[in-house]
C-alpha cells in the first residue's frame, strides 16, 4: 500500500530533483566545499577571542573584590507587629499568623461539612 501511495510522488519529484542536482554535479569539489576564509568572515573577531595567559588567583580575587553583598537600605518595621521587614513586602511574622488562622478555619469548615 505504501508503494502505491509513493508512486505518483516519485514521478512528479524525479524531474525536479534532476534539474537541481545536475548543475551541482558539474561543479568541482573544491568549489562545492566551503573554504575556511568565508567561515571566518561570518564570525566576528570577539567570538574567537581567547586569553593569552592564565589569570592568577590574586588578580582574579582583586577583580572580584567589589562583588560582595550590599547592605539593605529598605528595612522598615511592620506597623502591626513591629518586627523588621522589607519595605513593600508582607511581614513574615504577620503572614505566618494569618496562614495558621486560615488553615484552622478551613479545618473547622471542612469538619462541619463532613458532619
TrEMBL record:
Keywords, sorted A to Z: Mitochondrion, Ribonucleoprotein, Ribosomal protein, Transit peptide
Main location, first listed in the record: mitochondrion
GO MF term (any one): structural constituent of ribosome
GO CC annotation terms, alphabetical: mitochondrial large ribosomal subunit
Gene Ontology annotations of biological process type: translation
Pfam family, one: Ribosomal_L32p
Subcellular localization, as worded in the UniProt entry: Mitochondrion
InterPro entries: Mitoribosomal_protein_bL32, Ribosomal_bL32, Ribosomal_zn-bd
Name under which the protein is recorded: Large ribosomal subunit protein bL32m
Organism: Exidia glandulosa HHB12029
Species classification: Eukaryota, Fungi, Dikarya, Basidiomycota, Agaricomycotina
Amino acid at each position: 500500500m505504501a508503494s502505491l501511495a509513493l508512486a505518483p510522488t516519485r514521478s512528479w519529484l524525479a524531474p525536479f530533483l534532476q534539474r537541481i542536482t545536475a548543475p551541482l554535479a558539474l561543479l568541482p569539489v573544491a568549489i562545492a566545499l566551503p573554504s575556511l576564509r568565508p567561515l571566518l568572515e561570518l564570525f566576528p573577531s570577539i567570538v574567537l577571542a581567547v586569553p593569552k595567559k592564565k589569570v592568577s588567583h590574586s588578580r582574579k580575587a582583586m577583580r572580584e573584590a567589589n562583588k560582595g553583598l550590599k547592605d539593605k537600605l529598605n528595612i522598615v518595621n511592620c506597623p502591626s507587629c513591629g518586627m523588621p521587614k522589607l519595605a513593600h513586602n508582607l511581614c513574615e511574622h504577620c503572614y505566618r499568623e494569618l496562614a495558621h488562622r486560615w488553615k484552622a478555619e478551613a479545618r473547622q469548615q471542612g469538619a462541619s461539612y463532613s458532619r
